[in-house]
Every structure is written in structure tokens, then in C-alpha cells.
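Supplementary Note 3. Input sequence used for the single-chain structure prediction.
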Amino acid sequence: MENLKIYQSSAGSGKTYTLVKEYLLLVLKSPAALKGTLAVTFTNAATGEMKERLILALWQLATGRNEKLKSDLASSLGTSFNIEQAAARVLNYAIHHYADISISTIDSFFLNITRSIAYESRLPGRYEIDLNTEPAIDFMVQNILLAAGTDVGITNWLIDFAMYRVDSNKSWNMQGELRSIAKEIFKDHLKVNFETDVLADTEGINEVKSLYAAIWNKLSGMAKKFLEIADSAGVEPIDFYYGRGGFHSFIVKIAAKVHPKDNTIGQRTWQILDREDVFADNAQDFLKQDVSLNGELLSLVRQIVDYYITNIERLLSAEVVTANIYQAVILKYLFRQLKIYRKDHQILLMSDVGKILNSIIGNNDTPFIYENRKQIQKFFDR
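The predicted structure, written as C-alpha cells, is reproduced below.
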């Protein structure tokens, strides 16, 4: 990697000029080097610009029309190197072997690589590339819904997912949600091997749900007991320290199985534990005199706070898992439908190319797939 060069600069600062110059330094000594030099861009527009600038630069050098570029190249090639003659030879070669100029988008490059390893990738001998994922998404969602009632596995997961959505005050009609989940399959950030990864099982999800319910039931039970004792004793919210805006709001939220703000214990809750008095200074006289009631309510607040702090990480983890486990499992079922769609339509989606290459390359530093290109290429990235 000692020959690696990285140029970082803002728009309009001469990146394309610099890349063309570096490209020329590689090919001027040997026209045939055009075939072994790859320039990778991100857009078709950049590809066209790069090719245009390269041919223009060769013509200008061959006809003595670009002294600045000639001077910049001479500083690396040496003054004895005849740049005009070399540029003329490369230009002539490029005109007669234009297909050898490997300047393409990164998607096109990866697609060509994938075509060369179709057998190793277990792809059909003949297939088409489809840039549009919408038909595939429609196919996956429709087939998942059609499988409900016949496929026991997906039926149970869909029912559980629908019940979870109802419990979360969301619509049980999940077609839109299934489409959103299906779109995740085509995103690069999804690092899941649907062929081998075990995403979830019924026993595992039930264990998580049980843990989630047990923690909240314990917390809610203590908070409800607090409110019941206070109510039976004739306590009004205004009688508590800071009234409804104090620790009382924390207790009410916990009773309703709702997290406090930022999932943390508020300052006013800590204050009543420090002062060891749940009542305000202007509370009803009989409450201020009832030491036993204050002690009982204070003890419950302390128990709730301690239990919440002790279990907050497990509780939040269980919530995250519960919220996403259904999507994870349904993704696997959707992926199975995607495989059927690809096979039936003899197509490869553009979004599949990167994943296919990644599955073959793995951790190999010198993957064989690039050898299938039949030449070693020097890489540019614009």
C-alpha cells in the first residue's frame, strides 16, 4: 500500500485535473496500460466527464496545446521523456481500442465482476438486471399475506405482530408496514445472512416478553399501591411535594407503565427521598402529622426508584427486542419470497450485487473474483 495516494478537496478545486494527470502517468509509458487501469466514479455524468477530459488531455499533449499539464507530468516523468510522442501513441491506441478504457461507475464495475462469477454465485446462466425494486416488494408482500392461514409459521408471526401493533395503539392492517420492512432488504446497512442466521424463535421471544411484563408489572403494582393508599387516606395531588409537578407525576407514569422523561429519575423525586417527606409544607394538617402514612408512602417511592434503576437496562433492552423481533423474523420470510421472485423472473436486482460480492469475498485480501477480470487493474476512485 506504499503507492496509495489519497486526494481530498472541495468542489471546483481541481480533483478531476489531478486524477487525469495521475491516470496519464500510468498510461503514457505504455498505451496497453489503458486496459489495466480502472477509474471508478459514482455517477454516469462523472464517467462521461472523466473520459472526455482524458481524451482531450491526450489530444492537447500530442499537439502541444497544454503546457501546464505537460509541465506537471514532466516533473514526474523527467524532462528526457517525450510527452508529445507518448501522448500521440496513447491517443491512437485509445481511438482504436476505446472499449479498453475502463472508466465506469462503481455499480457498473461491480456488476461486471458479478457477471464474471455467475457460476460461483449460483446465479442463473442468463439473467437480467433490474434497478426497480417495487415489483419485487409487491411480490413479497402479496405472497406473505397469501401464505397467512396456510403456512403455520408465518401465520403465527403475523398474528403476534398484529396483536403487538394493536397493543401499541397502531392499526392491525399491516400491509403498509410489511412494505416498509421489505424495503430494508435492499439497504446496504442490513448486515444479516438470511440463509444461516437464526433471527428468533418462539421460546426466545416469549422469554423476552415475559421479562418485559414482569418488570413493568412489579413497578406498576408498587405505583398503584402508592396511589391507592394515598387516595384512601384522603390525600390530594396538591398535598404532595411540588403537587402534580413533583414526584407524583413520576408515580402516575410508572403506574401506567410509562417511562419518566429521558428514562431517568427526576430531581424532585430525589428531593423527597433526601428530605424524607412526601408531603408539601402546605399540605393538610392531618397529613403532616401522620408519620406512619408518610413513612409507608416514602418506602414505596424508594422501592420504585431502586427497582427502576436496577432494571432499567433490562427493561429498555426488552422493549427494543420486542419492538423489532417481529420485523426481523418477517424479514426472513420476505427474503424467501425474494429468492422465488428472482428465480421466476430470471433477474438480479442492482441492490443484490454488493451483497453477493461481499458473501464471496469475505475476509480474503486477494479474492479470486478480480482475477476473473483477466487483468490486474490499478484503481482510481473519483
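Residues 15 and 213 are 58 Å apart (CA to CA). The chain has two domains: 15-125+363-381, 128-345.
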